[in-house]
From TrEMBL:
Its EC number is 2.6.1.42. The modification N6-(pyridoxal phosphate)lysine is found at K196. One of its GO terms (molecular function) is L-leucine-2-oxoglutarate transaminase activity. Its cofactor is pyridoxal 5'-phosphate. It catalyses: L-isoleucine + 2-oxoglutarate = (S)-3-methyl-2-oxopentanoate + L-glutamate; L-valine + 2-oxoglutarate = 3-methyl-2-oxobutanoate + L-glutamate; L-leucine + 2-oxoglutarate = 4-methyl-2-oxopentanoate + L-glutamate. One of its GO terms (biological process) is L-valine biosynthetic process. This is branched-chain-amino-acid transaminase. SUPFAM superfamilies: D-aminoacid aminotransferase-like PLP-dependent enzymes (SSF56752). NCBIfam families: ilvE_II, PRK13357.1. Belongs to the class-IV pyridoxal-phosphate-dependent aminotransferase family. Keywords: Amino-acid biosynthesis, Aminotransferase, Branched-chain amino acid biosynthesis, Pyridoxal phosphate, Transferase. The lineage of its organism: Bacteria, Pseudomonadati, Bacteroidota, Cytophagia, Cytophagales. Acts on leucine, isoleucine and valine.
């Protein structure tokens, strides 16, 4: 098969597993579609571009990325409109960010035509897996890891780039409770916080587990130097509504530049609402909850979409966030706007939707 962009070999699964999936009950990240896209980087170029049945890899025990962590990924989503067409949301932003992560981790970068060609070929063959049930979508996981077999800390010379997909429902089934983390850090200036590398997630698991054992769902990371300013949450960027303005931590080399975050900022500005990207101290947030000037706090990300928080825990005290009526909630307005845009129910005024043809 030849896609519009690059030549990709297609080997189809003998039997589809789609009948085994209940599309009205889609836990996050548990069901994998029939196929995956795979490409290998060797001898200085990408080769063996294939769409093949979703299946295991055979890996060397000495695989460099298992030891030294050259492993990066992206998260993106595809949707179906009422005509049954498949639409991706801002895929080039993920391609750009993946290459920023690759550069920071000293890995091969991926040409646009391979990233987009692989995505398009995969979504064409697995188009039936894109849900059209409410609040569902096809989560897309592009990722890349070093495949050299050696011991010793040096960049791999070979890489595998793979994309697989999962039909998913909501990431959080109820508003999460966030704990402000002031002991552990996710990232520090000069580090890899802005890169979507596997190690950032591994490092967050132990502090998150401690928070979960204390009754919270997720962490709100603070800056590495003073533990004074809010950074991000690991699964999402963080946004507040304070005095009617949308306020969010400015991105830096320790915060992931979320595509959903950027989209929300553009949408909210287009509505004439002020947006402030700046340092946000935890003291400002707590004071805002206490005096009522902070009316909403929510996470923004591909997986979580827009997720209002139910409480914020800080230094042993829980601060409840009052549920805002749907008609006056900015988070709800943003969620509905993005949902209508992504499912083709409203005009794509930003030119963000990419149709698979
Ligand atoms: C995403 O939002 O796509 C992420 O990668 C976050 C992860 C929690 C699934």
């Amino acid at each position: 098969m030849t896609t519009d962009l690059v030549s990709i070999e297609l080997r189809k699964a003998g039997r589809s597993r789609i009948e085994e999936v209940d599309f009205n009950n889609l836990p996050f990240g548990k069901h994998f579609s029939d196929h995956m896209f795979v490409a290998d980087f060797a001898d200085g170029h990408w080769q063996n571009l294939q769409v093949v049945p979703f299946s295991d890899f055979t890996l060397s025990p000495a695989l460099s990325s298992l030891h030294y962590g050259q492993s990066i990924f992206e998260g993106m989503k595809a949707y179906k409109n009422e005509e049954g067409e498949v639409l991706m949301f801002r895929p080039l932003e993920n391609w750009k960010r993946m290459n920023e992560s690759a550069k920071r981790m000293c890995m091969a970068t991926i040409p646009e035509e391979i990233f987009m060609g692989g995505l398009e070929a995969l979504l064409r063959v697995d188009a039936d897996w894109v849900p059209n049930t409410p609040d569902s979508s096809l989560y897309i996981r592009p990722y890349m890891f070093g495949t050299d077999t050696f011991l010793g800390v040096a960049p791999s010379k070979t890489y595998r780039f793979c994309i697989f997909t999962c039909p998913v429902g909501a990431y959080y089934t109820k508003p999460p409770k966030l704990k402000v983390e002031t002991d552990y850090i996710r990232s520090a200036p000069g580090g890899v916080g802005y890169a979507k590398c596997a190690g950032n997630y591994a490092g967050s698991m132990y502090p998150t587990l401690l928070a979960q054992q204390a009754g919270y769902d997720q962490l709100m990371w603070t800056d590495a130097t003073e533990h004074k300013y809010i950074e991000e949450s690991g699964t999402m960027n963080i946004m507040f509504v304070i005095n009617g303005k949308l306020v969010t931590p400015a991105t830096s080399d320790s915060i992931l530049k979320g595509v959903t975050r950027d989209s929300i900022i553009q949408v909210v500005r287009s509505w004439g609402i002020d947006v402030e990207e700046r340092k946000v101290s935890i003291q400002e947030v707590i004071a805002g909850i206490e005096d009522g000037s902070l009316t909403e706090a929510f996470g923004a990300g591909t997986a979580v979409v827009v997720s209002p928080y139910s409480l914020i825990g800080y230094e042993g005290k829980d601060y409840m966030l009052n549920e805002v009526p749907k008609e006056s909630s900015l988070a709800n307005r943003i969620f509905n706007f993005l949902n209508d845009l992504r499912t083709g129910r409203s005009e794509d005024s930003f030119g963000w939707m990419h149709k698979i043809v």
